[in-house]
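thread: overnight batch results

M.L. [08:02]
morning all. the overnight job finished for the chain we discussed friday. pasting input first so we're all looking at the same thing
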Amino acid sequence: MKRNFFNTRLMFFVLAGLIVFTLSWARSTHSVETLVAISSVGETHGTYTACCKYKNCNKNPSQDSTCHQSCYSACTYTTTTTDTLSGPTGVSATAASSSKITVSWSSVNNATGYFVYRGTSSSSLSKKAAVTTTSYSDTGLTASATYYYCVYAYSSSDTSAKSTTVSATTSSAAPGTPSGVTATTVSSSSIKVAWTTVSGATGYYVYRGISSASFSQKANVTTNLYTDTGLSANTTYYYGIASYNSSGTSDTSTFVNSKTNTTGTLPSKNSFISATYNGDRIIEAYLPNGRLAASTRILSTVTAKSEAVSGLCLRAGVYHLVIRDAATGNKLAFERGLIVK
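M.L. [08:03]
and the structure it wrote out:
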């Protein structure tokens, strides 16, 4: 007995990794025995035409793509998924610094690579990279910003469903490298180091060495000034500064240097300008607060203190005087409490 079929739907499920599709037949006065000439497993999503053979049909013609033979009728099937690769699992995103996030996941069987998608929201992701490993380091990111990631597995013939979306927030930025670093000799055993305050820094590392290539940390301070004491006389020291906060440490600044004074005793006022100093000299006059008021060059022929001081053109007041070798800058002598009327 013949049975009528009208809009009959038959669901076919093929296990793990193969097609799952729906078959739909047009109205027919014949029972359907089997589906023939169906497209191969692994098709992309879409609707396809196949041929349906009628029951009790003894003919066995070769069917063509439109199923014109009398024992066949056109039918359609629609794929609902064609994923032969499973979506990546175990996806995680970890902030490595203020500009880097590392994304990792578990390996997917039969995958030849992975697409990494990134965005600044979970609903707006775009392809960032294609990799063959199970991790990806995303660099050049903005500090204190949240980024979202998902991963797809792919092979030569297929792409998986996407993974779970994960996110991570980069850390705040480390402070900038200190600038304006200076080193000023205070005495034969101390040097003062100063620099420009760095925004966002909570402290500074002071590095010292006898060369810019050989140094070590000398101090950890919270201000932009440090006086280094207990130094050797007539010795050059190099200094570099790095700022830091809870997010990290900056690069070390350009190194600067200064040479401690030569050890000596305070000469008497009458011998302050001495003929025993060969060569030209520099005379400097400082105010009591340490600010340089004036300086001038003294020729080697000058031996009178009054002549040397007159070249400074000082106003009335109290000054401290320093004599330096014009060639080396080394301190030769000094006098405190010079009164100019």
